[in-house]
Every structure is written in structure tokens, then in C-alpha cells.
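Subject: sequence -> C-alpha cells, single chain

Hey, anyone have a minute? Need the predicted structure for the following. Not urgent.
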Amino acid sequence: MKKKALSKLIKLMDLEKLEVNLYRGQSENIGGPRVFGGQVIGQALAAAVRTVEEKRLVHSLHAYFLRPGDMEHPIIYDVERTRDGGSFTTRRVVAIQKGEPIFDMALSFQKKEKGPSHQIDMMEIPGPDECTSELEVRKKMIDKVPEKFRDFFLRERPIEIRNLPGEGMFEAPKKKPPYRHVWMKAVAKLPDDVVLHQAILAYASDMGLLSTSLNPHQLSFAQGNVMSASLDHAMWFHRPFRADEWMLYSTDSPSASNARGFNRGSVYTEKGVLVASAVQEGLMRVIKR
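Reply:
Had a minute. Here:
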């Protein structure tokens, strides 16, 4: 089952070529009312890569979510070959549904170069073996879920998430500092394809990042007291990694204002190597009952 869920995600990232610079992707319902933003980020990355020479890898991407995606319709990815320079390549991808853009992303690719290197060290955090799988938490609370939703609630997922004690999405909401730490990885071994590992991490980077800005306000998606939507998303890939090995996603939210929450994330390997960074701002409107 675990491999089946991951195989479905890998297939989602394998886009159908329609014409030069034009690709089509399908969607998967993961429980929300609209297409999951991480899926669109990963697919747009996969589309852009198809137009870049193999020796150059994406090092940054900057995206805006323009309209909610409809899961009942395919998504068309239109790639613009903006620039092919001596060291860097630039691409722009527009995701289209029903004739309208729903997503816009710019990406930069670079050939491998030598240069100075440093990183901010990983915090002292309990390892994945000391944390509880989100799926195990779901199993323990299944009796509280209406029977018609139980199969979907317990479905296998392509990414395994392990939360630190007291940090799971199903914990009772209470005021907490704007920090969050989760371990994550693909549930089974992935092919040795750098682009696929980047696309899978891009997909996973949209999981829970926005929730960091809810911590200080006793707001929770599970409690249904906030309406949210990702507004933009940016990522930087610093060093090689494998998305099928444990990665710590350490996030913080420096600010929330004007019904928007600003969030940052750092992705580390289990050995403490910083491999990627992410930034996201999202809508967070309080639902008054």
C-alpha cells in the first residue's frame, strides 16, 4: 500500500507532453476542496526541467497561487524559455485550467560550481525514532471520525510525517511559539533521479508550513476555526539529498498581519546537513462561530 501511494505521486510528476513547451498533469484528492499546492509546485518544476539541459539543476523557484485548482480537470503547464546563459538558465511556468492561469512560477537553474560553503546548524531535536507517525495518531483517534470518512482518513500517504510530541495537527489548539519541527520522507525508496527527489521535496514542502503561523493564535485547520490558502511559495535547493531518507523540516513564522501569515522553513538531513529552504505567505482568516 505504501508503495502504491508513492507510485501514484511519482506518476503525477511524470507529465504528458502535448507540444513543445506544453505539458499536461493530472491531480489527486488529498482531502481538501482544491488541488494541493505542493502538487502544482512539483509538477511545474517537472515541466520546466524538461526544457533544460541535463547538466543544470534547479537552485531556486518562486511561485504565486492565483486561483484555486479544480481536481476534476487536468492542468496544462506552459513553459517559457526565458533565458539560457553561460552558467544559469531561467524558466517561467504558467499552470492553466479552463483557459485561466491558476499558478505562476519562475525557476533558475545552474551548472555545478565550486565556491565558499557554510550553513546554519540544525537545532537539537529528537530524532525520527523518538517521534510518533502521523498515521499512528490517526489510527488511535479513528473512533472519533464519522464512519463514511474513515477509509479516506486512514489512507496510505506517499510522505510519512513524524511530529514532535505536542506538535501534531490533531493536538488541542493552545497558544504556542511560532515554531514547528517535523520529520518527513517518502514512504519507500525512490529511483536515483535528482529531479524526482527535488519534485517530491517541493511537494512535501507545502505540508504544514502555513500552520506554523497559527501557533500563537490558538487556530487549527483540524478545529476548523481558520480559513486558509497559500498565496505564494519559494524554495532554494542548497545541497544534494534524498527525499526517501529522513529530513527535518524546521519552520518558523516571524510575522502575521492583515490576515496573512509569513512562514520560513529549513530542511536538514538526519546528519544535520542543510539541503533546502522554503518561504511561504498564506491567507489566515479567523472563522467566528
